[in-house]
Amino acid sequence: MLLPHQALQDAAVVPSQRGHARDEAGPWHAEAVCRRDEAGLFFAPSKEPTAARLAREEAAKRVCARCPVMVECREHALLQPEPYGVWGGLTAAERRVVLTRRRRRESELQRAAAMPAAG
Predict the structure, then answer these.
(1) Computed over its alpha carbons, how large is the radius of gyration of the chain?
(2) How far apart are CA 25 and CA 18, in angstroms?
(3) Is 67 annotated as a binding residue?
(4) In sequence order, what are the beta bridge partners of 90?
(5) Which one of 12, 39, 48, 54 is at 20 to 30 Å from 19 when CA atoms are compared?
(6) Chain segment 70-112, per-residue pLDDT in tens
(7) Is the model more confident about 15 or about 50?
(8) What are phi and psi of 36, to 5 degrees?
(9) pLDDT per position as a tens digit, 30-42
(10) For residues 48 and 118, what is the distance between their CA atoms, to the nearest angstrom?
């Protein structure tokens, strides 16, 4: 079984096997710093102790912090949405918070737009 990170690497390396891989994932992943690091840093092993998970996630975030395509990676993970791993410097839990805030903001904007103008 491939990890999502590995599938992304495969799409970047062999786009002809994925059809329109460039359209699906965009060219950003070719520049990702994590392509040169161990994928295990970005994805939790089963039954990982909390302290080990936190340390691994912080190490992954340090890699992300120096990545030239961190924002593109983050947006990919938010739009897919990627349910596991560190993507664009955010953990899965942090991405859920961002998505919840985005949905709430969009809902508020829609409600505001639907309100009749006072005056």
Answers:
(1) 17
(2) 10
(3) yes
(4) 87
(5) 39
(6) 999 999 999 998 899 999 999 999 999 999 999 999 999 988 8
(7) 50
(8) -95, -5
(9) 889 888 767 789 9
(10) 56
Residue 59 marked as a ligand binder: no
> Length of the chain in residues, anyone?
119
At residue 54, what is the residue type? L
Residue 2 has pLDDT above 90, yes or no: no
Tell me the sheet residues that pair with 87. 90
Tokens standing for residue 103: 């949905």
- Lookup: tokens for 92: 């899965």
Q: What contacts 9, CB < 8 A, 6 or more positions away?
A: 29, 35, 39
Phi, psi of 94 (to 5 degrees): -65, -35
- What beta strand segments (E) does the chain contain? none
Domain ranges of the chain: 4-114
Q: Which two tokens stand for residue 87?
A: 């993507």
Long-range contacts made by residues 17-25, C-beta under 8 angstroms, separation at least 24?
25/76
Is 34 annotated for ligand binding?
Answer: yes
How high is the pLDDT of residue 77? Answer: 94
